[in-house]
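Quick start: load a record and inspect it. Here is Protein translocase subunit SecE:
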Amino acid sequence: MKFFKSVIKTMKETRWPTKKEAVQDTTTVIMTSVFFAVFFAIVDYGVQAVIKLLV
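Running the structure step on this input writes:
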């Protein structure tokens, strides 16, 4: 019982993000994911080109 009371107390003290903060954080995550996808695609293409030159 003590555990559940502690969980309820903690949930009441939790500050949830506003809509603006949630949208901003989501946008940041999406943009970072796109950046890394493009970065790794370019690196992969470069490595493939180097391997084709060597083989």
